[in-house]
Design goal:
Oligomer: homodimer
Structural class of chain A: alpha/beta
Family (chains A, B): Belongs to the esterase D family.
CATH topology of chain A: Rossmann fold
Order of helices and strands of chain A: EEEEHHEHHEHEHHHEHHEH
Keywords (chains A, B): Hydrolase, Serine esterase
Enzyme class (chains A, B): hydrolase
Number of helices of chain A: 11
Number of strands of chain A: 9
Catalytic activity (chains A, B): S-formylglutathione + H2O = formate + glutathione + H(+)
Function (chains A, B): Serine hydrolase involved in the detoxification of formaldehyde.
Chain lengths: 284, 284
């Protein structure tokens, strides 16, 4: 792991790091904020998964999470959203990936692709659930027995599916404007089809609503959704999560926030409340 | 004036606007955050002047000012740092301006240039002190009897010189890592020489330390400066402001913040304390 940049902020250190990932077979860049802490102390870890087109940089620059993380003593980790590289899987993939904002580069959808040519590098599930946690636990003052996960849009999908898949690992799961049922919406159908092919059982393991229908459980979910979000009705459809949680007995704190859109202006507004919610569960 | 974008944030509206400026003879873009407020209410205005290479966008995306502005009920205005245009003053200027980060585009230094070819468009003093305030007063729910000003680096220079020049207008003046004595440092000597020529009396009107030496007074100044700022010793030199304020009897609250650099990671950390300080003076 090499350090790309470190900047003091809110008493702690905002760093950006790069490492050669075995999971993706590419270099991967991620950011970590470590608040000021006592020597030898280990801090809980909040994972933040970003949305389509984003890298670690969007939330790092615009997410306004550092004040709350410093107050609560939380490490904040922001991975990238896909493997990246000029020749990734050859021209066929590079063309497709760079031509579409919702598939390929910046759009890994937090799955391990099984379809050629994506299967070689698009292993974001393994990267985010296995390889990067091991690195974080080694290289930072992280208490890996206290983790939580949140995300935005495609990253909200990632946070919900990973949180539902590892309920013993994540003490809190929340999302901003998540894709809750990728199997039922265009973004998700394109991505799951492209990465996983026709294996609908595999799709269900990467669909929060389907996971809940199939028995996955967490104590509670916190979701904020902008009421003026342009993707609300076609791609996000929080009512599907609401119905699944109601049927499963999962406490869902879903708020449609009037007038808010899909941007970091929305995310930054509600970031402190999410981190407060995470902190209560990470420290309790 | 046309709206470029508006986004709901922290209960208010973060807007970006563009207008044809008479002062600069170009289109100018700026951002304004207006917190939620009662119908008909008018809110105090905080001006934020940005540093070299910046536009309105840097602080708008990375400044983390909206939470505090929403709490205190403050409008936050962020102008651009120079006129902009592909053919600005012809190729001679465009070449120079685009070739240097510290002169020309993104580096107007908040002066009205008197030297050809800059004199035609580089009128940032008139733009920021006359034209844009008139527009803000007309187009936003702004109480122009309650204004304050802050800035970063070159914008800290702008905030200090404008605040010292209009003590009746600005109830609070603060800066992050300001250029305090442009007449004595390389950035400032290049800019003041280029825009104002050899007229050293004109230089002194755009130099905070010289203004204080020449009799300008404000009740107090708040300045935070990163101790690990790479520009501290050569370009910023806060000790010169400290000496001038001590001699003049101006209360200077200067803090060298250990470990902080020149970036928005530094600015965003101390932004809430600055806005608190402004709010106390705007509301008192």
């Amino acid at each position: 792991m090499e350090s790309v940049s470190t900047n003091k902020a809110f008493g702690g250190v905002q760093g950006v790091y790069r490492h050669a990932s075995a999971a993706t077979g590419t270099d991967m860049t991620f950011s970590v904020f470590v608040p000021d802490h006592a020597p030898g102390a280990k801090l809980p870890v909040v994972w933040y998964l970003s949305g389509l087109t984003c890298t670690h940089a969007n939330v790092t620059e615009k997410g306004e999470f550092r004040r709350a993380c410093a107050e609560h003593g939380l490490i904040f980790v922001a991975p990238d959203t896909s493997p990246r590289g000029p020749d990734l899987n050859g021209n066929a993939v590079a063309d497709d990936a760079e031509g579409a904002y919702d598939f390929g580069l910046g759009a890994g959808f937090y799955v391990d692709a099984t379809q050629d040519p994506f299967a070689r590098h698009y292993k974001m599930w393994s990267y985010v659930t296995e390889e990067l946690p091991a690195l974080i636990g080694e290289a930072f003052p992280a208490d890996m027995t206290r983790q939580s996960i949140m995300g935005h849009s495609m990253g909200g999908h990632g946070a919900l599916t990973i949180g539902l898949s590892f309920p013993e690992r994540f003490r809190a799961v929340s999302a901003f404007a998540p894709i809750v049922a990728p199997g039922q919406v265009p973004w998700g159908q394109k991505a799951l089809g492209g990465y996983l092919g026709d294996d609908k059982a595999a799709w269900r393991r990467h669909d929060a609503v389907a996971l809940i229908e199939d028995g996955a459980r967490v104590p509670a979910l916190l979701v904020d959704q902008g009421g003026a979000d342009q993707f609300l009705e076609k791609e996000l459809r929080p009512e599907l999560l609401e119905a699944a949680c109601a049927k499963a007995g999962i406490e869902l704190r879903l708020t449609i926030q009037p007038g808010y859109d899909h941007s970091y202006y929305f995310i930054s507004t509600f970031m402190p409340a999410h981190l407060q919610w995470h902190a209560e569960r990470l420290k309790g």
